[in-house]
Design a protein that fits this description.
81 residues, mainly alpha, 5 helices, 73% helix, globular
């Protein structure tokens, strides 16, 4: 499963890599280029990144989602907290 690989990778990735990955995940989620089966994996990965110790990662997620209507409410709520 994709999320399992992501969990392993995120443990050793640099802050810059995690920022880049979070932006790519959001853009894929919003861009409708992702197969339906991967949407849950992307949401799970973004949920994990919400707990990242670097504010830069959360800022990237917030900036990429912006006020987009397709942004998951639970992610926006978590970012607002």
């Amino acid at each position: 499963m994709v999320i399992e690989s992501f969990l392993e990778w995120v443990q050793t990735a640099s802050v810059d890599q995690r920022v880049e990955a979070s932006g790519a995940l959001v853009r894929a989620y919003l861009g409708q280029t992702v197969e339906f089966e991967l949407v849950e994996d992307i949401e799970a990965a973004l949920t994990i990144l919400l707990d990242d110790n670097s504010p830069s990662v959360r800022l990237e997620i917030a900036e990429c989602f912006g006020a987009h209507a397709k942004a998951p409410r639970f992610i926006i709520s978590a970012l607002a907290s």
